[in-house]
Amino acid sequence: MSSKPKVLVTREVFDDILEYLSQSFEVTSNQSDVPMDSETFAQKLSDKEGAIITLSDRIDAALLTRCPNLKVVCNIAVGYNNIDLEACTRARVMVTNTPGVLDDTTADFTWALILATARRLTEAEAYLRAGLWDGWKLKQFLGLDVHHATLGIFGLGRIGQAVAKRAVGFEMKVLYHDVRQPPPEIEQICHAHFVSKEELLSQADIVTLHVPYSPATHHLISKKELQQMKPTAILINASRGGVVEDAALIEALHTKTIAGAGLDVFENEPKFNPKFLDLKNVVLAPHIASSSRATRYKMARLAAENLMAALTRGNPPNWLNPF
Ligand code: GLV
């Protein structure tokens, strides 16, 4: 019988990561990648010392009472709103995430959404694919110029900064709002100016969200905020579902309160509001902002290294709740 600690990997990961873990642990994996329902997840986790999980796996107090051996959960994500951190701390369960390795890739994808939304790329492609293109027209798919526009960033953390740095080439004015104002040198590197929430909403041509999801950021963008935006402006969300009130956004896109939106995340994903599908002025993506081959590998590898460090030394590098 194996004396190695038992660990669970809830979703498919790269094969060599399982090999790395198998050297030290008895690994239960899920390479078929079928998401587990909460009862199956609880049963599989009940005798484990550690787990590598993803943002669709919820860790809460009720689950923790069923997992007496659990010492660490390692999220393959930088956001960790799927985990009740306080409950984990009470249960002396270490929690880790994957900061740093996905900033540039997420910023790149934010720009893909900005450009696709401003220039109506998916709408134009759908028109072409439907065989509707009958020739060049002066006023066909008129979009919003990104160059020299005003970019408004909510949240000038690592990802927000990477988004701001990419605006230099477009010679944009960059505004930001954050609950914590970063040091002046960050503002200088990013060429970003701090403004109030109201100023950002009313002045930006492109509003992009890079805040973590928490009770404080729940519905940060709702009906009132959408009404404060310019009717020509676009909203980009590659942060978390719930930061935007989707029903209010659907209404604003429908009534042209704003010109468009580019979304990688949704409330209740993957069961997002189907009314988005009826709108032409929205670019939709299935939560893939960090999904380059290199970055998803780094995220999985970092989660595995956190698990290894937690169970061998009790001190993982990306420990969110040190006790
Ligand atoms: C992805 O959404 C992440 O938080 O890393």
Main features:
323 residues; alpha/beta; Rossmann fold; seven-stranded parallel β-sheet; five-stranded parallel β-sheet; 12 helices; globular
Protein topology:
Blueprint: E1 6-9, H1 15-22, E2 26-28, H2 38-45, E3 50-53, H3 61-65, E4 72-75, H4 85-90, E5 94-96, H5 103-118, H6 121-129, E6 150-154, H7 158-166, E7 173-177, H8 184-190, E8 192-194, H9 197-203, E9 206-209, H10 223-228, E10 234-237, H11 246-254, E11 260-263, E12 282-284, H12 293-313
Parallel strand pairs: 1-2, 1-3, 3-4, 4-5, 6-7, 6-9, 7-8, 9-10, 10-11, 11-12
Helix pairs in contact: 5-7
Glyoxylic acid binds at residues 55, 77-79, 102, 290.
In short:
By secondary structure, the protein is of the alpha/beta class. 34% of the residues lie in helices and 14% in strands.
Overview of this structure, please?
The chain is α/β, with parallel strands linked by helices. It folds into two domains: 6-101 and 293-312, 3-Layer(aba) Sandwich (Rossmann fold); 103-284, NAD(P)-binding Rossmann-like Domain (Rossmann fold, 3-Layer(aba) Sandwich). The protein has twelve helices and twelve strands. The strands form two sheets. The protein has a seven-stranded parallel sheet with strand order 8-7-6-9-10-11-12, with helices on both faces. The two termini are 33 Å apart. The model has no long low-confidence stretch (mean pLDDT 97). Bound molecules: glyoxylic acid. Glyoxylic acid (GLV) binds at residues 55, 77-79, 102, 290. The site of glyoxylic acid has 6 residues, from loops.
**Mean pLDDT over the residues:** 97
Tally of domains = 2
Name the structural class.
alpha/beta
Biggest β-sheet description: 7 strands, parallel
How many H/I helical runs?
12
Measured between the Cα atoms of the first and last residue, the distance is 33 Å
Number of strands: 12
Strand arrangement, major sheet: 8-7-6-9-10-11-12
Name the CATH superfamily classification of the largest domain: NAD(P)-binding Rossmann-like Domain
Unreliable residue stretches: none
CATH architecture type of the largest domain: 3-Layer(aba) Sandwich
Shape: globular
Q: Would you tell me which CATH topology of the largest domain applies?
A: Rossmann fold
| Fraction of residues in β-strands | 5-15%
Bound molecules: glyoxylic acid
Order of helices and strands: EHEHEHEHEHHEHEHEHEHEHEEH
Q: Percentage of helical residues?
A: 25-40%
Q: What is the C-level CATH assignment of the largest domain?
A: Alpha Beta
Query: Over the alpha carbons, how many angstroms does the gyration radius reach?
Result: 22 Å
